Amino acid sequence: MIRLQGIRKAFGKNEVLKGIDLTVDKGEVVAILGPSGSGKTTLLRCINYLEKPSDGEISIDEFAVNCRKPAKKDIHALRRKTAMVFQQYNLFRHKTALENVMEGLVVVKKLPKAEARRKSVELLEKVGLGDKLDAYPSRLSGGQQQRVGIARALALNPEVILFDEPTSALDPELVGEVLAVIRKIAKEGITMIIVTHEMSFAQEVANHIVFMEGGTVVEEGPPKTIFRSPKEERTRQFLARFTSDSAYSI
Amino acid sequence: MKLDIPFIWTALVSLLPAVPTTLKITAVSVLCGFAIGTAVALCRMYRVPALHRIAAAYVTVIRGTPMLTHLLILYFAIPLAVDGLADRYGLAFRSAQIPMIGFAYLSFSITAGAYLSEVVRSGLLAVNKGQMEAAHAVGMTTVQGLRRIVFPQAFAAALPNLTNSLIGMLHGSTLAFTVSVVDINAQAEILATTNWKFFEAYLAAALLFWGMTVLIERLSALLERRVTRYNRGGVA
Amino acid sequence: MGAKFDIQYVFEYFVKLLPFVQISLVIVASSILLGLLFGLLAALPRLYRVPVLQRLSGIYASFFRGTPILIQLFLFYYGLPEALKLIHIDVSRLPVLSFVILVYGLHSGAYVSEGIRAAVTAVDRGQVEAAYAVGMSGFKAFTRIVFPQALAIAVPILANLVIATLKDTSLAFTLGVMELTGKSQTLATISRHFIESYIALAAVYFILSVVLERLFLHLERRMLKYERETGKSKRSLLRNKRLERSANTSVALSKGGTGA
């Protein structure tokens, strides 16, 4: 179980997160929605400390990090329990698809090379890239790169995978293949937190929706409630823009 | 021999009269070099028949050889050519009438031209092709598009490299001493040998060059901030 | 002032100069090695923002990039023995060559330190984030992800520096070192065939530059194989693309190598 308590983050005077509380149960798929600038990506990046929260507490099961005075090894431990899929993929440019997936296993998890390799091949096959093992990122399409990114995250066997707008940088025709992979692993009971603009995808895959605006959580609940009968006016306004036409947003 | 600190100041003051010579050599070589470089770059980019091959060879050869060799070759080749022509056509002009600094001007301009052609070329290539298309689309001619749209952006992109070349030529101007031009470096040597204070004299010269270099860098940074205003990052 | 031009001398002198290639290359190689050491030492405090030290290395880089190599040669050759005499160390017996290598080493070190800084900062920030996200420590992220990529970025910068240093060694003759330029002057003064001698000299330098250029291109291709999208890459001789790249990353560090 992941628990965020009173997470705050300010860039200079600009307070981006104004005390966020959030609980994610094991196996749950949470989608964070909201207009741009609402702080959803910042919140996600706080969870593995790519952004340093100014205040609050992050806990995963029994393990807790006090954001007021985090120890270096705690940050490290937090990152080992989480994995992230980036908007810009961020595959290691000088490593092949296979090496990208193996890197964390060998360096961080200290797995023997052969075992890391076996596991990585398996995962790349799972995301449909069994034939691209030795390709460098520069030779892969955006969709393929992102699928490698997902395999890299899966390999670490984390408590939770954080998805930061995983399809926003993709050409529309490549979005489908990435969503299909995410859908597939969502069914396997892996805990996931997804920041996304793909409303219908969120509705379909997530079992919990969080709507953020202006650095606070406006409303949260199961997709049915949020999408069909939101309590808050702001949620209704935001969703109206997407549901009026069935088009996927950008 | 003791270190004579006050002499550093004395030397600095006595070096000042040589500063204009250094600056003149630098300015002439960079300006002429820029003109040569632009012509060469355009020849290469627009693949002007025959000329673009010559241009490419010029750039490759000059950049592949030390600046000193350019100066030395010209210093001996020009009199040979000038006097040869004068003999043939019975002219009164003699190579001895060419001032020494003329060799520096000519040779360094040729050197600078090759380096600057690459700077100009990369600057022009840095401008997105769509810019020219857009200029045409709003009805500009190619010349207008180059002058009003492409060049300003190319200049901004090339500024750091231009500054580098300018500093390179400033430092390179010290080679002029080999053809007996009294620039800062030669003046420092005179001071050093007449007073037998080598360290102090060259330290003063170094400080002078350092100061000028830092000044150029600062000015260029200021200029860069102005000309790249349009490029200031969009998102936070 | 010279004898009549005779192309035969160019070939003759070219051959006579060849044995002196070695000494020029020795100067280049030792000063680049020394420069890599100085450059790394100077870059680290600036990358890690060590107080005081980062200022010192900033001044070091600024001075050696901000003054002509010719002045530096004179300053150290004449100045260093005097300065060291003050603390009772006598270096006046050291061979000239050691001063030359020291000065070229310090000079190139300044460019190396800027190059290292530029290369490290040129690596995309997302790469570090991804490394952290898979659980690497800062040290591991640097050694496994940032450094290998920075190294590949640094190869053209290094190539530029090596070729520039080669051209700069033509100034070592001013201190009386018998390298290529010094030898060609001796040859010329004896026979009065100046132009021929200097053309031969230029030819030797040119061939050396082109060979070095090729070697580095080869190295760069191998190291950057992961960046090539279409297999064939378009490159022309004497690093045009390098200039473009340094312009793109707004890295104002290309050492002109004007020979001064």
SSE blueprint and pairings:
The complex is a heterotrimer of chains A (250), B (236) and C (260).
Chain A (H helix, E strand, L loop, with lengths): L1 E10 L2 E11 L4 E5 L6 H8 L7 E6 L2 E4 L5 H10 E4 L11 H11 L5 H14 L15 H14 L4 E5 L7 H15 L5 E4 L3 H7 L2 E6 L2 E6 L1 H6 L4 H11 L7
Chain B lengths: L4 H11 L3 H27 L5 H13 L3 H23 L10 H27 L2 H9 L4 H31 L11 H12 L2 H30 L9
Helix pairs in contact in B: 1-9, 2-3, 2-5, 2-7, 3-5, 4-5, 5-7, 6-7, 7-9, 8-9
Chain C lengths: L6 H11 L3 H27 L5 H14 L2 H18 L9 H27 L2 H9 L4 H31 L11 H12 L2 H30 L16 H9 L12
Helix pairs in contact in C: 1-9, 2-3, 2-5, 2-7, 3-5, 4-5, 5-7, 6-7, 7-9, 8-9
Main β-sheet description of chain B: none
Number of strands of chain B: 0
Low-confidence stretches of chain A: 246-250
Could you report the average pLDDT of chain B, rounded to the nearest whole number? 88
Q: Could you spell the SSE succession of chain B in H and E letters? A: HHHHHHHHH
Give the strand order of the largest sheet of chain A, numbering strands 1, 2, ... along the chain.
6-7-8-3-9-10
DSSP summary: helix tally of chain B: 9
Helical amount of chain B: over 70%
Helix content of chain A: 25-40%
Instruction: Write down the oligomeric state.
Output: heterotrimer
Strand segment count of chain A: 10
Broad structural category of chain A: alpha/beta
Poorly predicted residue ranges of chain B: none
Calculate the terminal CA-CA distance of chain A, rounded to whole Å. 31 Å
| Main sheet characteristics of chain A | 6 strands, mixed
